[in-house]
């Protein structure tokens, strides 16, 4: 089969962008190439945001914030509701753009846009529930309460693998909280960002004059634009998703200017398969979590601890899923594993497999598959059966590699699962209530997400999402994550005629 001519996919991308409302000048003749990992074809060349433009966008976001903070929160929620409506009507086109730019299969592209719709609807409801406490006070005729106020412009730095959903987790919540948003997407996925910006602008136009200009800004380009967001004192919060290395650069710079960070960094997620596990359910969960999105989710399953009594029974099924899964063009029906994002991802995967091989591991799969010519990187997902948790296993490699280890006692399995620098997501497969509860308890998983009888990936937006240790500690999306996007004021009111001082202090003038 001869490779698809690059104009075919480029023309489809241009038609999609046009339908999504992106003006053609935004993606013609610029300096930033946008490629599709499906064939490696050049889709467009985008004009990059200059440093001056980035600084001006931050200034405008600050001015927009000063107005937006005074718009009542439920009215702010209405803008997010309209954004959700735009996303609903553009779902198929935007999902297709996600597939073209990231190589996700069609169903996962649709799922990513659904995640955006979900958070918009969640945030709209939240806009009527941004509540603070009323607290008892030790003083007569006093009242004490907490008020939550808008914080300021929020910087969002997002990664290629969830190129639009991660923006929406932050933006939908930030907007109802009364903040403006400045977004620096991955330079590997700028076209989906242009599309989302265009959909936001449609929603803002329908919303009317209450939405100030520059409320949501987009910076297209490389790392230097992210650095501007991280360093600018006008940006009190930066939510950054990416590698732990990126977080090490961002965290200290934010700390140096006392800004807040929501860091969502590397994961090295594990599943424990206990003797009582429903193996039929477990192997399907393992297949999705480890091979889905070609192993390029921060929540992807990377380590599997299997009880020695059921090792062979489980691994027979897992191996057959690995050898039969269809790897190929993610636009095709039946394909479950698309391409890696680029050559560097392929190189990192091969280096990790070489290291495992050198330490005596038995490897199934992992080889490159020719699907669409030399510029596209397709691989068969790799199963690596290994005796010990080596340094290579303890590191996150953003590729479909599943390291499999045996265990004998639950204590040992929990110890091994926690014995990595990262702490994002985890799961146990068991029908034994004691094991399940132990895994979820204080002496169990040390991760931000811990599940029973489902894999570590594919979280819903209603929960707080994020992880511990080198994952960075941030929480996004649901639950009370909104509090990071607001500032808290503690208010004490005296409605009496006396002035009692706290702690019984006397000060009579
Ligand atoms: C990511 O990979 O950065 O839980 C986010 C999941 C998705 C989000 C992943 N809802 O797998």
Mean pLDDT metric: 97
Radius of gyration: 24 Å
Bound molecules: 2-aminohexanedioic acid
Tally the structural domains.
2
CATH architecture of the largest domain: 3-Layer(aba) Sandwich
Strand order of the largest sheet: 12-15-16-11-10-18-19
The poorly predicted ranges are none
Name the CATH homologous superfamily of the largest domain: Aldehyde Dehydrogenase, Chain A, domain 1
Give the N-terminus to C-terminus distance in angstroms.
93 Å
Percent in strands = 15-25%
Percent helix, as a range, is 25-40%
Walk me through this protein's architecture:
The structure is a single chain. By secondary structure, the chain is an alpha/beta fold. It folds into 2 domains: 8-265 and 472-488, Aldehyde Dehydrogenase, Chain A, domain 1, CATH 3.40.605.10; 269-461, Aldehyde Dehydrogenase, Chain A, domain 2, CATH 3.40.309.10. 39% of the residues lie in helices and 19% in strands. It has a 7-stranded mixed sheet, with helices on both faces. It has a 5-stranded parallel sheet with strand order 7-6-5-8-9, sandwiched between helices. It has a 3-stranded antiparallel sheet with strand order 3-4-23, with no helix packed on it. The longest helix has 21 residues, at 106-126. The chain starts with 5 loop residues before the first helix and ends in a 15-residue tail after the last strand. Residues 115, 161-162, 166, 241, 297-299, 457-459 line the site of 2-aminohexanedioic acid.
């Amino acid at each position: 089969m001869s490779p698809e001519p690059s104009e075919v996919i480029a023309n489809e991308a241009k038609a999609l962008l046009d339908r999504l409302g992106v003006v053609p000048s935004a993606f013609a003749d610029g300096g930033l190439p946008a490629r599709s990992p499906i064939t490696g074809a050049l889709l467009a060349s985008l004009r990059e945001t200059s440093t001056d433009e980035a600084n001006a966008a931050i200034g405008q976001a600050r001015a927009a914030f000063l107005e937006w903070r005074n718009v009542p929160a439920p009215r702010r929620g209405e803008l997010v509701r309209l954004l959700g409506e735009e996303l609903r009507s553009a779902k198929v086109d935007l999902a297709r753009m996600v597939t073209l730019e990231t190589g996700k299969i069609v169903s996962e592209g649709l799922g990513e846009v659904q995640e955006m719709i979900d958070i918009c609807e969640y945030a709209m409801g939240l806009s009527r529930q941004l509540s603070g406490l009323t607290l008892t006070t030790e003083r007569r005729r006093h009242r004490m309460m907490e008020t939550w106020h808008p914080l300021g412009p929020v910087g969002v730095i997002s990664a290629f693998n969830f190129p639009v959903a991660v923006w929406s987790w932050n933006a939908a919540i930030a907007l109802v909280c009364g903040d403006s948003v400045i977004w620096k997407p991955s330079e590997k996925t700028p076209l989906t960002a242009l599309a989302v910006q265009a959909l936001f602008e449609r929603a803002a136009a329908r919303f009317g004059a209450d939405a100030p200009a520059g409320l949501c800004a987009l910076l297209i380009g490389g790392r230097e634009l992210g650095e501007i967001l991280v360093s600018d004192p006008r940006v009190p919060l930066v939510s950054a998703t990416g590698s732990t290395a990126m977080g090490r650069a961002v965290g200290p710079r934010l700390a140096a200017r006392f800004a807040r960070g929501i860091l969502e960094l590397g994961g090295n997620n594990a599943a424990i398969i206990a003797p009582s596990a429903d193996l039929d359910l477990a192997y399907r969960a393992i297949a999705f979590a480890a091979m889905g999105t070609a192993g390029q989710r921060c929540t992807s399953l990377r380590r599997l601890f299997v009880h020695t009594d059921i090792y062979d029974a489980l691994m027979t099924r897992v191996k057959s899923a690995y050898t039969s899964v269809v790897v190929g063009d993610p636009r095709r029906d039946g394909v479950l594993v698309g391409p890696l994002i680029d050559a560097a991802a392929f190189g990192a995967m091969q280096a990790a497999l070489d290291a495992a091989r050198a330490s005596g591991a038995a490897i199934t799969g992992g080889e490159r598959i020719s699907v669409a010519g030399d510029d596209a990187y397709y691989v068969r997902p790799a199963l690596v059966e290994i005796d010990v948790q080596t340094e290579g296993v303890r590191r996150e490699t953003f590729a479909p590699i599943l390291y499999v280890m045996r265990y004998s006692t639950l204590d040992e399995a929990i110890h091994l699962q926690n014995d990595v620098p990262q702490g994002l997501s985890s799961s146990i497969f068991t029908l034994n209530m004691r094991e399940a509860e132990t895994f979820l308890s204080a002496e169990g998983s040390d991760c931000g997400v811990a599940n029973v009888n489902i894999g570590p990936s594919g979280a819903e937006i209603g929960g707080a999402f994020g992880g511990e240790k080198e994952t960075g500690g941030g929480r996004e999306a649901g639950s009370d994550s909104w509090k990071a996007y607001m500032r808290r004021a503690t208010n004490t009111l005296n409605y009496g005629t006396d002035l009692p001082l706290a702690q019984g202090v006397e000060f009579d003038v």
